[in-house]
Amino acid sequence: MRVLFGAIADDFTGATDLAGLLARSGLPVSLRIGVPEEPARAEETTAFEVIALKCRTAPVADAVAQARAALSWLKAAGAERFYWKYCSTFDSTPTGNIGPVAEALMADLGTGQTLYCPAFPENGRSVFMGHLFVGEQLLSESPMKDHPLTPMRDSSLLRLLQPQVKGAVGLASRMDVARGPEALKARLNDLYGRQIAHIIVDAVEDEDLLTIATASIDMPLITGASALAAPLPRLYRERGMLDGGEEAGARPSVGTGEIVLSGSCSAMTRTQVAHYLPTAACLRLDPLDLAENGVAAAVDWLKSRTPDEPKLIYASAEPEAVRQAQQKLGVEQAGLLVEDALAELARVALDLGIHRFVVAGGETAGAITRSLGVSRLTIGAEIAPGVPWTYADISGKTVALALKSGNFGGPAFFTEALQRLETQ
Ligand code: ADP
């Protein structure tokens, strides 16, 4: 099928979030984990192709190389419009790669301007006067200030982005957006005339995102969280850009056996873990213990459970415990120990006959899908805004994976996800 839209996401849960919102349109969406080694074959591509990278915290050169490789695969597949997807909390550091990747993609596409809009109103992320809010709090006052890998201590997207890029950064404010797509386009042109290449665009509600998506529909590249892409299938359809043959396939049937694996320390995940604890057999992983004794005890624990009983293995911990582990082991090592342990446990779970995996944490989900050898996901029903069930074929078995980034979902997400799979 002809590829219309090619997206590059900086992590796995970000990619599933984006793919899930696109799939709300009823159109088929394909998600590839990493850049496929083989060029795309027309008979297996869909109108919306999403490539998940694992580069949110990667050094700039590495992230840029990955994103450029993804872009050239998508271009060769025939994609005409491109999207760079990062987190709705703009996770990055001053040496972060959101800006450098955007700049490299712009250069490869020969375009002089792009937009940045991480707003996701349905999940409480909004941008006003270039400042990012999480619910009613500024980003820098939200729990994101304590993120294990990317603590966000500033809320100004202009200040966060400018040190990352060579070109000038400007703002199209809510006032510009409120005047509608034509006025916003005029504002973008005006900024372009003043050689402002990187435009932060305010959005506080879905209507704003529709305005922005409409105004930017002919731009080769736009960037943001997932929500800015959500109106695109509808806009493409209204403009007659789809050829009409696109239809999502039937949902695959999945065997039983379930497990929840959580490596996210985000505030919402900790609430979800606390909520699920009384209803499941649970095992807590401690990075200090993993450093000393390895994962064998956890593997034994998992083997002692039955596939069908509700189970949770989690490393999720309070900010103070995370800090202590990081001080002793180093930030990267602490994270890797947990990711590797959960990845191995996922493999053991698969061998034990478990087919249903709920995973919390973006990096964690990346590590787990890689260790399961998953390279392509089909997108299924949405569990919570931005979190769909996805299906993968692993050595002839169909496995269902719900890959949830840190702050997504409500307190009962783990139970809701597994129930949703039963009833769809
Ligand atoms: P989120 O989606 O919430 O950002 P991620 O999985 O992307 O979650 O990131 C969380 C990181 O924190 C991972 O690298 C994970 O291995 C690490 N981590 C998890 N638990 C702990 C812990 N108890 N101490 C230190 N680091 C941890």
3D structure, described in words:
The protein has about 425 residues and is an alpha/beta fold. The protein has 2 domains: about 5-240, Putative sugar-binding, N-terminal domain (Rossmann fold), CATH 3.40.50.10840; about 260-424, Molybdenum Cofactor Biosythetic Enzyme, Chain A, CATH 3.40.980. The chain has 15 helices and 18 strands. The strands form 2 sheets. It has a 15-stranded mixed sheet with strand order 9-10-5-11-4-1-3-2-16-17-18-15-12-14-13, sandwiched between helices. Strands 6-7-8 form a 3-stranded antiparallel sheet, with no helix packed on it. The longest helix has 21 residues, at about 330-350. The model has no long low-confidence stretch (mean pLDDT about 95). Bound molecules: adenosine-5'-diphosphate (ADP). Adenosine-5'-diphosphate binds near residues 322, 326, 338 and 364.
**Proper CATH architecture of the largest domain:** 3-Layer(aba) Sandwich
Count of strand segments: 18
| Main sheet makeup | 15 strands, mixed
Walk across the major sheet and give the strand order. Answer: 9-10-5-11-4-1-3-2-16-17-18-15-12-14-13
Shape call: globular
Using only CA atoms, what is the Rg?
21 Å
Counting helices, strands and paired strands, the structural category is alpha/beta
Kindly report the average pLDDT value: 94
Spans where pLDDT lies below 50 across 5 or more residues: none
Bound molecules: adenosine-5'-diphosphate
Strand content: 15-25%
CATH class designation of the largest domain: Alpha Beta
Q: List the domain count as a whole number.
A: 2
By DSSP (H or I, 4+ residues per run), the number of helices equals: 15
Corresponding CATH superfamily of the largest domain: Putative sugar-binding, N-terminal domain
